[in-house]
Amino acid sequence: MKDNASPPHTRVFYGWFVVAGTFAVTFVGFGNAYSFGAFLPSLQHDFAASRGSVSLVFSLAGFFYFGLGVISGPLADRWGSRLLAVTGMILVAVGLALASVARSLTEVYAAYGLGVGLGIGCAYVPAVAAVQRWFSRRRGFASGLAVSGIGVGTLVMPPFVAFLIGLLGWRGTYLALGIFTLVVGVALASLIEDDPRGRGLAPDGELLSSGLQPTPVTKAGVRSVVTSPRFIGLYGACFICSFGLFVPFVHLVPYALDHGVGQASAVLLIGAIGVGSTAGRFLLGDLADRLGRALSFLVMFVGMGLSFAIWLFSMSFWPLAVFALVFGVFYGGFVALAPAVVIDYFGAVNASSIIGILYTSVAFGTLIGPSAAGYAFDLSDSYTLPIVASGCAYALATAVLVLSAKTPLAKV
Question: What pTM was estimated for this model as a whole?
Answer without folding.
Answer: 0.76
